[in-house]
Amino acid sequence: xxxxxxxxxxxxxxxxxxxxxxxxxxxxxxxxxxxxxxxxxxxxxxxxxxxxxxxxxxxxxxxxxxxxxxxxxxxxxxxxxxxxxxxxxxxxxxxxxxxxxxxxxxxxxxxxxxxxxxxxxxxxxxxxxxxxxxxxxxxxxxxxxxxxxxxxxxxxxxxxxxxxxxxxxxxxxxxxxxxxxxxxxxxxxxxxxxxxxxxxxxxxxxxxxxxxxxxxxxxxxxxxxxxxxxxxxxxxxxxxxxxxxxxxxxxxxxxxxxxxxxxxxxxxxxxxxxxxxxxxxxxxxxxxxxxxxxxxxxxxxxxxx
Length: 305
Hints:
This protein is of the alpha/beta class. The chain is 30% helix and 26% strand. It has helices at residues 10-16, 25-28, 47-58, 82-88, 92-95, 121-134, 143-153, 199-203, 242-251, 278-294, and strands at residues 3-5, 22-24, 36-41, 65-71, 89-91, 100-105, 135-141, 158-172, 187-196, 208-214, 218-224, 229-232. Strands 1, 2, 3, 4, 5, 6, 7, 8, 9, 10, 11 and 12 form a twelve-stranded mixed sheet that branches. A hairpin with a 4-residue loop joins strand 11 and strand 12 (229-232). Helix 1 packs across helix 3 (47-58).
């Protein structure tokens, strides 16, 4: 079954051009099925790009998903038209009135700031707390993973000497977990960050399970509460050209920008990126939706606790 998306969401037309089957609300209402309800708290500056990246991955499942987008009252996006936000996003206070089968919280360009100094930390903390009893399973991505680990489990973040930027090999540490069903012994994950969480802090916490890591980029994925929470330090959702755009944007503005590693063919910026993470990204999101959302969520969504 396809995704159920708001009418006129830009991602619908963009993904149809990629031959991905999506469904707008008008058509979905004619199908007799309860879709899984997924809410996305999109903190990334380029909202439409992130919407498209996530919808592309969520579409690769036989289940019908109803995707909604959440925004913060305490922060006004600078890079997305107000009209788009008004049409497709709702405040937390409105969406918090119901339960959700799954939730995705994205990264944000605030990683070098202490968490408490982020202007929307108070509202975000409220959302983190709410999700525990109103969402079956939550994916925290990049900065959100660091923020969630800090808020829920007191895990600190540390500044890196240089930006972790490029494509890094990850190794599943518990390949028997359903989240890794169909995975190879190694998979690639895009990284783009100036801070890190450390392995020793994760393994010292009895509530957390380190499930993938890398000798080069460190902690990759952490699981908590039996799969009700996943913390992913990288960006498996990234499109093929995202790191290229980021590099070329920053290379002309900052002197400390290095070329993303293991990304361009032949490690030559004049060449096209070599995409090595797409298959595992699709697998991970499909496994999450199937085994940790669909298989675990109650039939009556009001029963989520």
